[in-house]
Amino acid sequence: MSNDVWVVAEHARGQLSESTLETVGKGRELAHATGGKLVALLLTDDERNQINSLAAADLILLARRPEFREFTPEAYGGAIEAALKEAPPRLVLMGSTSVGLDLLSVLSARTGFACLDSCTRLDLRASQLLATCQIYGGKLFVEVALSSATTLVAVVPGSFAKPADQPSGRPEVRELTLPADLPVSRITFHRLIEPPSGDVDITKVPILVAVGRGIQNADNLPLAGELAEALGGAVCASRPVIDQGWLPLTRQVGKSGMTVKPKLYLALGISGAPEHLEGMKQSELIVAVNTDPKAPIFGAAHYGAVTDVVELIPMLTEEARKQGLKKAS
Amino acid sequence: MVPTSAQLGPVPGWAILWVVFLTAVGLFAWRVTFLIRLLRLGRSEKRWDRIPERIKQVLVHVLGQRRLLDEPLVGIPHVLIFYGFLVFLLATSSMLLQGLLPGIHVPSLEVNRYVAPVIDVFAALVLIALAVTSFRRFVLRPAGLQLTWDATLVNILIAALMVTYLGASSFRIVASPAESKVWLPFAWGLADWFARSETLRTNAQALSHVFWWAHVLIVLFFLAYLPYSKHLHLLASPFGAFFSRLDPPGRLPAPAPEGQRLGAERLEEFTWRELLSAFACAECGRCERACPSFQVGEPCSPRQLVHNLKVQLLQYGPALLKKARAATDGGEPALLGGLIAPAELWSCTTCLSCVEHCPVLNEHLSIMVDLRRRLVERGEVDARLQEAFSNLQRYGNSFGQSERKRAVWTQGLDFKPKDARKEPVEWLWFLGEYACYHPALQETTRSLARVLRVAEVDYGILYEAERNTGNDARRAGEEGLFELLREKNMAALEKAKFNNIFSTDPHVYNTFKNEYPELNHGRHPIRHHTELLADLLERGRLKVARKLSHRVTYHDPCYLGRYNGVYEAPRKVLKALGVDLREMPRSRRDSFCCGGGGGRVWMEEIGEAQSRPSESRVREAAALAGVEMLVVACPKDFVMFTDALKTTGLEGRIIVKDLTDLVAEAVIGEAAEVVQKRAA
Amino acid sequence: MNIAVLTKQVADLVEGIEIDASGRAVDRDSIRYILSESDDHALEEALLLKERSQAHVEVFSLETGEVRDGLCTALAKGADRVVMILAGQETPPSNHAAARMFASVLKGLPFDLILTGVRAIDDLDGSVGGLLAGYLGLPYVGLVRKVELVDGAATVEKEYPGGFAAELGVKLPAVLGIQAAEQPPRYVPVTRLRQVMKTAQVEEQEAEPASEEPVSVERMYKPEEGAGAAMLSGSAEEIARQIVNLLSERRVTR
Ligand SMILES: Cc1cc2nc3c(=O)[nH]c(=O)nc-3n(C[C@H](O)[C@H](O)[C@H](O)COP(=O)(O)OP(=O)(O)OC[C@H]3O[C@@H](n4cnc5c(N)ncnc54)[C@H](O)[C@@H]3O)c2cc1C
Ligand code: SF4
Ligand code: SF4
Description:
B: five-stranded parallel sheet, binds flavin-adenine dinucleotide, binds iron/sulfur cluster
């Protein structure tokens, strides 16, 4: 049994995904601490742009085929299954993402290796590997000892920091031998569907800049628009703002509007009436700004600040542009 | 001499009259039978019981014309025309009898010393009344009143009847003044005037006969035409009143018996009395003018609803009678999604205003709810309403919160209300879900708990065993859910020991009072907390420590006022507190709904509402000079109006306050917030 | 066209959940069960397929929680047959064991499509759909939001972040993990539900026992609950900087 850690590299539209880079960082740390190697498993049609981003790996197992341009669970799974069976590593990391979730369980059933989903932490404690997973929508955390020889783990994106500095090493690239009977025919890729244009569907946008009556008047609304633009998100609002006709009804959050669960809900000048909270309290991260320190929105928010939003918004925009937040996408 | 005794050409006049008479009666009878057969397409419903009460309804609403007088400009003329109509029914019958049976002596009312003057005066009054209504109809043109040919024709016919009657009388006087010694101010006036003309004088007898004939023929035409016309209501509405619902309005009629599909959308699925609404309706528009949703421009119109039912009935009823329809569903297009769009139904707040104002006692609401029931049965409910229903089913509250949290509001108290499930209490306080769960209301709920403690009222609550009572789920069309909730509540109530029961929520109050028969057949008349407070103040159990001097106005909640007639208790309380109460223009039975009833509070906004009933209402309150406070007695009102203050920008102008908080302020002597702080 | 829908009951978060005395498992007495949300969507998608292509829909559920209610609801919504799978054990099985049991029941049955929720809130050791597909050797696609049946194959839409999706062709038989049905799960009026409950035929079927516990839990804990928001302070500019730093640290802007 090796102490290697494998990372299944994900890519979309030619680019390696952010969560792969995070996992590579963490995986490398664990592998090196236990005397193993960090192996990146890259299935692609064209590795040229992708290999550079994987410089932190010690070894890249590469399979290049036209079918690997787009993810299909069957072909990807078949290739990985064969590789896994040949030389099982200690740990296989993938994203708890649309790609990773299609692989994790099937591979576990096919190989008999244990698997874990929704992992947010990996620790090495007294030479014991421990994974922490969140279940029940984050209401409970479970600490699991990775005691089997090989475990497949799906990691929640954003759980680990992307290494700040890219190691400049040149990992060895080894071609993966694919089984002759690699199944490719049962699941076929037809086409990519782009997000619908037209007015934004706020239930699908990961970043929402939500404005309430604290925005004061329609003239200030473009400020919120600029902030959303700088963060790569969209503007939504509480009902009074919609009622004024400042924004279309499609942007209303709450009881009589939409229910949203974005990654970030920036509540600016919203008091936090229950009718509003109902529509956004499940957001992953809620940051609220209000002049009233007792505003109920702070009860639902993760972070809060007491200040004037009209003053704050342009500053946020500037700061976001300065830090180039959006470019990361 | 009777006019029909003369020969008209080769035949005697009476023979011609017989032909016309029989034709008219035949046409009338033919049509009326047909209409009755149409009504019988409907579901059966018992409306032959309690005859004395039904007669009373007719006396009050038909003879008394009670609701018509709500709008004097229309009401008074209508009363005159109506009574003129009754008087003429007598007069004209006597004329007809004389004409049909010229050989037999029939007492002639036109010359009767007592009756004739009445007829004479009414003829003139009716003409004046017609002038007034025509002025309104053609010159003022109130919104919502359609100008139809039919209506114009009927007005002309009525006027013609009066004119011809007066013509016949006055020329009879001119012809033989000696015979007519009876006091007939108008006929005599006209006669004097006609007598000045030589030609008229010499032809008076003939002219009198011409007018007599004209009158009688018009009457017969009218008789034949009426059941075909829009003025069918003249005929149908007395029956509407007789067969009206005698149960309290807060008790919704049960749906079709088990085994049949829930709700209604086809003609046969409505009850015959619901179908009768269509014939009884005068298209007067009162219901629409009283409808909050219609008033703010939502797609809701009780008048249109009844009208559409009528259109459907007249259009497809005949085919149904002939069984021309395919054995399965098909032939008749469904009313829902056809003439009636679901949005029209969902925008109704079940405020009862239409029912309360309809002069012919139509039951819009039961039609509305029957149609909603069908929508629910088909699963066609919007996502929010569906969520509310599911929450009610699962957690017993529409907030989707755990049952176990129902009594969290008690945590802010420095005492613990008794648990009525564990120890006997005098009063059971059934809170209703808003008072329990809505964070904006919990302090008010605690206020009442403190006031009751001061008054040493022995009360308890059901803690987590209390469920939503289903009042609004039922009105949103979810009958099964209502039954489920009722069973659960009854199970909890049966385990509790109490003598009396009161609620802070008018919706709970209504359904307990009217729709929980087991509860009411027992010894537990439910009361609203305003009634209890009024009583405590009156009996000195609560003493006002500090008179309040605010100038306030009070909003009558639909389910307390219109539904159950509780208007005085809250006003008594306010008076006892010393506040200066100013009434809004729309108060008591004219109260304007907050827009949250009948499940509306759970639904998505209907269309891009430009205005909401609640906004119209707070504007009304704010328009009262010097009024600083809108006092409410229903938790939903508090939520709706607080919200409306924000959306109308009236926040600085006026505040919304629950009556309970005012009582606490006056009785405990400190504002509730202060009490709370001190307790903390 | 035969469709099997696999459902399971999970803890209702509205009621809260507690950890038991061992500190390694959920206190099952604290749980009130509810049908897993994405399973509800899987059922809805199956019913939509039934309406569109006259499919025959059978719903299977393991014997946990308010399973009978859940199955009756499925019948009331329009499922053709419902089956409760007897696990022969008291503790709810792991997903591996559940998938084995489902596999033992479904093996050899002529299903063209097996739909299940892509994920349940209590999934720890993978998802039932993927595991089952692995055991049965069937193709599996998860995060599906739309299924169409064309000539014995399915065309599905699989969701990706950022509003993207892929259209994939899947040969049948196959297992699909449904993320969301094309329309929200339908409403069943209480009257109909109660009627069904009175007359419903919930079949019971024994599964081959499976008790895999592939995960060894060391401990379970609740996240620390702050009384509310962590407050940032300082001038407006400082606050702006802190917020933006926070966002980049948390990498939400991606
Ligand atoms: C049936 C029903 C359905 C409803 N549905 C919805 C719904 O779908 N969505 C919804 O949002 N609401 C809904 N509401 C309305 C809800 O109750 C609240 O009224 C609404 O959410 C309040 O919006 P707000 O927070 O923008 O306004 P407010 O409550 O007026 O809050 C404005 C906030 O801005 C703060 N503020 C003011 N100036 C500044 C400044 N310069 N800088 C920073 N902060 C400032 C104030 O302190 C205050 O907290 C519904 C209400 C009802 C009754
Ligand atoms: S009950 Fe009220 S809202 Fe409904 S139709 Fe009648 S008047 Fe309108
Ligand atoms: S239903 Fe009643 S109130 Fe409405 S238009 Fe007809 S008669 Fe008038």
